[in-house]
Design a protein that fits this description.
This protein has 70 residues and is an all-beta fold. Helix content is 0%, strand content 64%. The chain is built from no helices and seven strands. The strands form two sheets. Strands 1-7-6-3-4 form a five-stranded mixed β-sheet, with no helix packed on it. Strands 2-5 form a two-stranded antiparallel ribbon. A hairpin with a 4-residue loop joins strand 3 and strand 4 (29-34). It is globular, with a radius of gyration of 12 Å.
């Protein structure tokens, strides 16, 4: 996993309507956000740790990534 600090930048170049969710290791949804072409997100409110970032299209999970927040 790539460590991140307090900011995450996501570029959606697909032109599809995507959203993402941050899930902690206990399975609790910590953050949900609708992606735009360029999304800059403040993650300073999240505790340090490992998260799963689920990318969704029309409610279906299309990609899952591990994210380590410092």
């Amino acid at each position: 996993p790539n460590p991140i600090d307090n900011e995450l930048i996501i570029e959606n170049t697909s032109q599809r309507q995507l959203s993402f969710e941050f899930i902690n290791t206990q399975g609790i949804l910590m953050l949900r956000h609708q992606l735009t072409d360029y999304s800059r997100l403040n993650l300073s409110h999240l505790p340090s740790g490992l998260y799963l970032m689920r990318i969704k299209e029309k409610g279906n999970i299309i990609k899952i990534r591990k994210v380590l927040k410092r």
